[in-house]
Amino acid sequence: MNPVEIADIEMDLLLEGIYRRYGVDFRNYSKASLRRRIMICMETAGVDRYSSLIPVLLNDKDAFNQFMLTLSVGVTEMFRDPHFFLTFREKIIPILKTYPFVKIWHAGCSTGEEVYSLAIILHEEKFLERSIIYATDFNSLSLDIAKKGIYSSEALESFTKNYAETKPGASFREYYQEKYGYFKLHDFLQKNIVFSTHNLATDGVFGEMNIIVCRNVLIYFDKVLQDKVFKLFTNSLSSLGYICLGSKETIKFSGVADHYEEAFKKEKIFRKIKGTHGYQTT
Amino acid sequence: MVTKLHEAVVIGGSAGSFKVLCRLLNTLPIEFPIPIVVVQHVWKYTDGLVAETLNQISSLHVMEAEEKISPRKAHVYLAPGGYHLLFERDKTFSLSIDPPVNYSRPSIDVLFYSAAEAFGESLIAVLLTGANADGAKGLKAIKDAGGVVIVQDPETAESSYMPQMALKMSPAAHTASIEQIGELLLRLTATQETPDEP
């Protein structure tokens, strides 16, 4: 057995340990990315084997929290893929307006940048008042950042540029206040957002949604977990509801593919055309 | 002599490598027996345009890499803009939006490290022109794992920094001009049988 294969065993044991100790399940994550993240934790801890993290993380809750923080380092941005937000503005919201009220589930919202992006679009289309956005993530430390809505000004320039490509109804500056190298998004954007922990790997359906937004989360899962999550989404979505995925993700090769039609191909927006809402065990 | 079986070629280059990549891909025939995987530093949203352009120029099939697929022979896969491209142990692709590495996403090091672990000695790596140190560490990892590593001769590179940094870390790497790299890839893969399609 070569050293790479031995290291793989060590990582499996670490993930099993974390699951049994804390109930956080990384066992069906894509390993290549996860391995890179864990290596950063190993550097911080000054160890060079995955197995050396086991006693540390299993016995020291603070060390585990730090580990979770490292795993959640900022990976998202505001208005990532502006054409998605443009399509949401121009094509999806007009359809939503035929409903008195909609529920949107932003699954795997991380530190919240995209949730606020969505809220801004809804606000500009005068639909935020009739929406409720459930913004969930398995990582409560990420959610804490999301709830604050405070981000480093370093990213402002690229966020502003992205925003400008969504045919905006205002200037991005109207949505935040900048101070000491950070900017804080205005509180009114949060009014209809409910932040809550939810683990896609282990938790179930919690409501009937009109829209599910889950972008660039599934690329971190293996095929087994992807299928499980797609099933969860299908059971959580009302008929004719939409699922919005990341630009390199698709529902097409999943077990529930025949429940959907490709509504907007390039933007990876799929519409549920088959099956009813509500929990099904299939 | 036993011919070592090579399973994949990974190529890295920063901005400005597009021209040499075109030239390199042009020298490879439609029956090239293994897949080629490329990380080029590109601006955020690529829209698949680079892949389309290369596809028209090359006799190989050029496309953007998709997650979870196994790369096929005679195909060239480009890392999509704004994503890291990685190999899983089972030699399928993964994508991530983890933070940039060496100011780059996609990063050459990220692909090279994961490919070194997935393929070991059955990998060929090529590092082209570039003005950034991305790729140097990854190339060394591939070398250490027993793979064949080739660096564009800094003399022939538009920006010599990237090849130079790589040669500093892996002095034993082959150095070659673009034409020679093409010949080398053909020679390295010439006598081998095509691995079974997954």
Task: Summarize it.
Chain A has helices spanning 3-22, 31-45, 53-59, 61-71, 82-96, 113-124, 140-148, 156-164, 223-236; strands spanning 102-107, 131-137, 150-152, 176-179, 182-185, 193-197, 209-214, 237-245, 260-264, 269-272.
Summarize the SSE layout with pairings.
The complex is a heterodimer of chains A (282) and B (198).
Chain A: H1 3-22, H2 31-45, H3 53-59, H4 61-71, H5 82-96, E1 102-107, H6 113-124, E2 131-137, H7 140-148, E3 150-152, H8 156-164, E4 176-179, E5 182-185, E6 193-197, E7 209-214, H9 223-236, E8 237-245, E9 260-264, E10 269-272
Parallel strand pairs in A: 1-2, 1-7, 2-6, 7-8
Antiparallel strand pairs in A: 3-5, 4-5, 8-10, 9-10
Chain B: E1 8-13, H1 18-26, E2 36-40, H2 49-57, E3 61-64, E4 75-78, E5 84-87, E6 93-96, H3 108-119, E7 123-127, H4 136-144, E8 148-152, H5 161-169, E9 174-176, H6 178-190
Parallel strand pairs in B: 1-2, 1-7, 2-4, 3-4, 7-8, 8-9
Antiparallel strand pairs in B: 5-6
Helix pairs in contact in B: 1-6, 3-4, 4-5
Task: Describe it.
The complex is a heterodimer of chains A (282) and B (198). Chain A is 40% helix and 19% strand. With 282 residues, chain A is an alpha/beta fold. In chain A, a hairpin with a 4-residue loop joins strand 9 (260-264) and strand 10. In chain A, helix 5 packs across helix 6 (113-124). Chain A is globular and about 60 Å long. The termini of chain A are far apart. Chain B has one domain: Rossmann fold (3-Layer(aba) Sandwich), CATH 3.40.50. Chain B is 31% helix and 20% strand. In chain B, the strands form two sheets. In chain B, strands 3-4-2-1-7-8-9 form a seven-stranded parallel sheet. At the A-B interface, helix 2 of A face strand 5, strand 6 and helix 3 of B.
